C-alpha cells in the first residue's frame, strides 16, 4: 500500500488518475445574481 498501489488514494495522486478512492471535485454552478436597475424618470 502506498504510492505504487493503483487502488489507494496516494497511488491515484501519484498516477494522476481518479476513481472511487479519489473522486473529482465538481465545481458548483452558482446562478448569476441579477442586478436590479431602478428605472426612475426625472419629472
From TrEMBL:
GO CC list: ribosome
Signal peptide residues on this chain, from the entry's feature table: none
Amino acid composition bias (Basic and acidic residues), ranges on this chain: 29-43
Keyword Ribonucleoprotein attributed: yes
Compositionally biased tracts (Basic residues): 1-13
Record-linked InterPro entries: Ribosomal_bTHX (IPR031414), Ribosomal_bTHX/bTHXc/bTHXm (IPR030826)
Stated family: Belongs to the bacterial ribosomal protein bTHX family.
Protein's name according to its UniProt entry: 30S ribosomal protein THX
Protein species of origin: Bizionia gelidisalsuginis
